[in-house]
């Protein structure tokens, strides 16, 4: 399978690997979507961890939604 064939089979994987990720989001995703307060306490122990108070995570937002019962 050549590279052009891979690009047609999995375009979303190739595109998602090229999108830059902010440092604050990197640690949030890498550590299992930690809360803001836990990220701040982690930052106090490890100063290289960046925390953005204005950033919102779509995954965390949708995970808190309640599902309606399905009859």
Throw out a few tags for this protein.
single chain, 71 residues, 5 helices, disordered N terminus
Description:
- The chain is 55% helix and 0% strand.
- By secondary structure, the protein is mainly α.
- The chain has one domain (21-71).
Strand and helix layout:
Elements: H1 3-9, H2 11-18, H3 23-30, H4 36-45, H5 58-63
Note poorly predicted spans: 1-12
Counting DSSP E segments of at least 2 residues, the number of strands comes to 0
Summarize the main sheet.
Answer: none
> What does the radius of gyration come to?
17 Å
Quickly count the helices. 5
Proportion in helices: 40-55%
How big a fraction of the residues is strand? under 5%
Oligomer: single chain
Tell me, briefly, the overall form.
Answer: elongated
Give the terminus-to-terminus CA distance: 46 Å
Mean pLDDT: 76
Our count of domains comes out at 1
Q: How would you summarize what this structure contains?
A:
This protein has 71 residues and is mainly α. Helix content is 55%, strand content 0%. It is built from 5 helices and no strands.
């Amino acid at each position: 399978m050549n590279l052009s064939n891979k690009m047609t089979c999995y375009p979303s994987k190739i595109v998602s690997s090229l999108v830059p990720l902010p440092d604050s989001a990197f640690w949030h995703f890498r550590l299992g979507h930690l809360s803001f307060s836990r990220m701040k306490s982690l930052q106090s122990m490890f100063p290289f961890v960046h925390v953005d108070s204005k950033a919102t995570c779509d995954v965390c937002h949708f995970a808190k939604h309640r599902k309606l019962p399905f009859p």
